[in-house]
From TrEMBL, chain A:
Organism this protein belongs to: Leptospira bandrabouensis
Keywords: Membrane, Transmembrane, Transmembrane helix
Protein name per its UniProtKB record: Cytochrome C
Residues that span the membrane, as ranges: 15-39, 88-106, 113-133, 172-192
From TrEMBL, chain B:
Top-level taxonomic group: Bacteria
Keyword Signal: yes
The gene coding this protein: nosZ
Pfam families recorded: nos_propeller
Enzyme Commission no: 1.7.2.4
Native organism taxonomy: Bacteria, Pseudomonadati, Spirochaetota, Spirochaetia, Leptospirales
Enzyme class: oxidoreductase
Entry protein name: Sec-dependent nitrous-oxide reductase
Keyword terms, alphabetized: Copper, Metal-binding, Oxidoreductase, Signal
């Protein structure tokens, strides 16, 4: 195990990690998650996008209209400023990109493993935080809301689609989320590849 | 004796029997397509192929229909007030109906014209005339709203209007009722002695903004100028005006104006006219007029203007020619190639067609002139004639073209549309119309590239076509499919006001460019409130300005206090930024002010003088949301 940790990455795998680091920069520029809303009175649909540092509507007016819909059931207004996670998420991403570049200076398999662990932690913490965030919005309703349906909560799904009253909400990773997932896959592949190389070398 | 009367009865009976079913069958199926219903059916969720913009005649409005379904989509208020949405009432639009005669909240609107680029419809603007109080209007096809109204001075009865040149460089507007120019109290029998005049007005259209301005007026003999169409391609420089009453009768025109065998089509070279103006041949002439402009989401600005440049035909040789045309011509229509000018002599037994090339060839050769009227040479009828459609129908009025070499002429008296071939002048089909068709319209039929699929005939009389609804029957139009060799009747549909003329445009030219909302950040209204937190009440003496917001499902501020006699301005901004969420605003019992419909992102102002003490509700009138009915509040008026 120890030999694997300190095994120097192959040239190709180093380049792959450099590539992962570079591609991750694009995550600053594209949404990582997207929630779409369909209802009979919104034939064109409404969409909300979660970026590394902000929440926007799919069109310039969608977020405002989602909030207008939500105010009937007493949901808090969704604004980027009310989500502190968005303040430090850019730094977490920066840390991951920084790690990829450091690997170029110190190209050991251990760094790839660290990257995998980091990505998994970021992913798990991110998803659980997202779930908690959805839970709070969906359950923390104004008791004076105009529409109160007994026993009804409006937590959107973490992944997949869910019908709430007459609205179908679907939640899926967007381009940025897919890139994060692919980055993890590339690192896992590198680990597998390096492990195979070690065995080949040993024989 | 008995035998004989029986015989008569039997004969009559047989005749009736033979006649009635035939007649009924004839009227119902003469040209009706066998699968007409499926060809006009637009299934739920699907869209029509064509927009039809119909003038509203005496309603003063323009209406928008989908073709082929013939469903009414919208009434666009233009020259008449519209209580439904407050047009002509609120502080933003009331100045749109200002004229030099004061506030004129109605008109008689006959002709719709589409803006064109290179002779093709470009889907930017529609223009509409006001016949009664001479005006013309520009309607923006992004918002489907009236953006500008220009009054035309020194004229009466703005009937031959607004007809556009090939690139909408100018709109033409000519006098229907010749009058003393300038206006004066003149003995009416001086009409025939030259005391009455007509004018042809060139209204310039700014090619980027669409803004209208008067470039020039030409003083023409005192006939009644009826319709116009401008040339295209080779006849680009020319516009053609039909005229009647060249007899200059001034009483019982029915007889007096129908005496001569021929009246005239006036050929007007507008490029030459502009040239003469630029050479200083036009002189300063009086005439007060008003230009009303309604910029997007701002109060309309009404500007009073004075004076025009006037040109006399004798000072600008080569600008105008009269082409004799039988008899009291109504339509003067230029075909898609720009070569043929078709006259519609409403009392004529032929459809005369002038040739533009022939006109150009002979116009300055003395031997082809028969006389001259007030400096305008009169060409000989035969010299410019390309051909005549012999005995086409009774009362030919107006012609449009399908781009396939066929022309369609409406015939008022014989209630039909005749299809005939350009060049051979042969009638190929008679299409019955129900009844007394005036104008007709083909999609793009007056452009250089007709989209010759549908034709509508706009009728004056609808006896027996619909369920009776009292003495005034619905006004109506009829839709024909002209895409195949034989035109077929598809449907009848009732219309708003009198469907006088229309322009039809393929939907794809317009539908993706229409505005869905006014972006709040671009709202430049001086009284806009873009955030609910900025809603406020500002008192200035006995005037109260209420900066109010409307959003699903409340107004803010929601409680207002005033004193009897104070003037309240409710500047209501609709904060919505969602497609199709207007809010309404109305106050119980408000006199002189109607409902407002405020579009998303728009600001409109409701003026209200606090009446006797009491509590007055105000509320949203446009069903906006589940809590629409709760969108209501109160004004308390104190003594």
């Amino acid at each position: 195990m120890k030999t694997l940790l300190f095994q120097t990455l192959s040239k190709r795998n180093r380049l792959l990690i450099l590539g992962v680091g570079l591609v991750l920069i694009s995550v600053y520029l594209i949404p990582i998650w997207s929630i779409s809303i369909a209802a009979p009175q919104y034939p064109e649909g409404l969409g909300m996008q979660i970026w590394i540092n902000k929440i926007t509507g799919a069109t310039p007016y969608d977020l405002k209209n989602i909030n207008l819909l939500n105010h009937y059931i007493g949901m808090q207004e969704i604004v980027s400023e009310s989500i502190p996670e968005l303040l430090f998420m850019p730094y977490v991403l920066g840390y991951l990109i920084f790690g990829a570049f450091i690997t170029e200076l110190y190209p050991k398999v251990g760094m790839a493993i660290l990257g995998i662990i980091n990505l998994i932690i970021v992913g798990l913490v991110g998803l659980s935080d997202f779930w908690r965030w959805e839970y709070n919005y969906g359950h923390n309703l104004n008791p004076e809301a105009p529409i109160i349906v007994e026993g009804m909560a409006y937590q959107p799904p973490l992944l997949g689609c869910k019908v709430m009253l007459n609205i179908t909400a679907c939640s899926y990773p967007s381009y940025g989320g897919i890139i994060l997932g692919l980055s993890l896959a590339v690192l896992v592949y590198i680990l597998w590849d390096e492990n195979r190389r070690k065995k080949t070398n040993a024989v | 004796m008995l035998k004989k009367s029986n015989l008569i009865l039997v004969t009559l009976g047989i005749a009736l029997f033979a006649f009635v079913p035939n007649c009924k069958k004839g009227a119902a199926t003469a040209t009706l397509a066998s699968d007409a219903a499926s060809r006009v059916y637009v299934a739920p969720g699907e869209k029509d192929e064509v927009y039809a913009f119909l003038s509203g005649g005496f309603s003063g409005q323009m209406s928008v229909y989908g073709i082929p379904s013939a469903r009414l989509f919208k009434i666009i208020p233009v020259f008449s007030v519209f209580p439904e949405n407050g047009y002509g009432f609120d502080e933003e639009t009331k100045d749109m109906l200002k004229t030099t005669h004061g506030y004129v909240p109605w008109d008689d609107s006959h002709h719709v014209e589409a803006s064109m680029t290179d002779g093709k419809q470009d889907g930017r603007w529609m223009f509409l005339n006001a016949n009664n109080t001479p005006r013309l209007a520009r309607i923006d096809l992004k918002t489907f709203e009236t953006k500008e109204i220009l009054e035309i001075p020194n004229t009466a009865g703005n009937h031959a209007s607004p007809f556009a040149t090939e690139n909408t460089e100018y709109l033409m507007a000519a006098t229907r009722f010749s009058v003393p120019v300038p206006q004066a109290s003149v003995a009416i029998d001086s009409f025939s002695k030259g005391g009455f005049k007509g004018t042809v007005t060139m209204v310039k259209v700014d090619k980027n903004t669409g803004r209208l301005s008067i470039e020039l007026q030409v003083l023409v003999p005192g006939f009644d100028y009826d319709l116009s169409h401008c040339g295209k391609k080779k006849s680009h420089d020319w516009c053609f005006f039909s005229s009647y009453n060249s007899e200059q009768a001034h009483k019982m025109l029915e007889v007096g104006a129908s005496k001569k065998d021929k009246d005239f089509i006036l050929a007007f070279n507008w490029v030459r006219a502009k040239e003469c103006k630029d050479q200083g041949k036009a002189y300063n002439f009086g005439g007060e007029y008003v230009n009303n402009f309604h910029d997007e989401n701002k109060p309309a600005v009404s500007t009073k203007l004075s004076g025009v440049k006037m040109l006399n035909p004798k000072d600008c040789p080569g600008m105008m020619y009269y082409m004799p045309t039988p008899k009291s011509p109504h339509g003067t229509d230029v075909d898609s190639t720009g070569e043929y000018i078709v006259g519609g002599g409403k009392l004529a037994s032929v459809i005369p067609v002038h040739s533009f090339s022939k006109m150009m060839e002979v116009k300055d050769k003395k031997e082809h002139h028969s006389t001259e009227i007030e400096g305008i040479p009169v060409l000989k009828y035969e010299s410019t004639l390309a051909g005549e459609v012999q005995k086409p129908c009774l009362g030919p009025l107006h012609t449009e073209f399908d781009g396939q070499g066929y022309a369609y002429t409406s015939c008022f008296v014989s209630s039909e549309v005749v299809k005939w071939k350009l060049g051979t002048w042969e009638v190929v089909q008679h299409l019955p119309a129900y009844y007394s068709v005036g104008h007709l319209s083909i999609v793009g039929g007056s452009s250089t590239e007709p989209y010759g699929k549908y034709l509508i005939a706009m009728n004056k009389i609808t006896k027996d076509r619909y369920l009776p609804v009292g003495m005034e029957l619905p006004q109506s139009a009829q839709l024909y499919d002209i895409s195949s060799g034989k035109a077929e009747l598809l449907s009848d549909f009732p219309t708003v006001g009198e469907p006088h003329y229309s322009q039809m445009i393929p939907a794809k030219l317009i539908m993706d460019k229409t505005a869905k909302l006014f972006p709040l950040e671009e709202n430049k209204h001086p009284y806009a409130t873009k955030n609910e937190n900025d809603a406020k009440i500002v008192r200035l003496g006995s005037t109260i300005h209420i900066y109010m917001t409307a959003i699903r499902s409340h107004f803010k501020p929601d409680i207002i206090e005033a004193r009897t006699g104070e003037t309240l301005y409710f500047h209501v901004t609709n904060l919505e930024q969602d497609y199709d969420i207007p809010h309404g605003f109305a106050i119980g019992g408000a006199p002189n002010m109607t409902n407002l419909l405020i579009m998303p992102g728009e600001t409109r102002t409701f003026k209200w003088v606090a009446p006797k003490p009491g509590v007055y509700p105000f509320y949203c009138t446009d069903f906006c949301s589940a809590l629409h009915q709760e969108m209501q509040q109160y004004i308390r008026v104190n003594p």
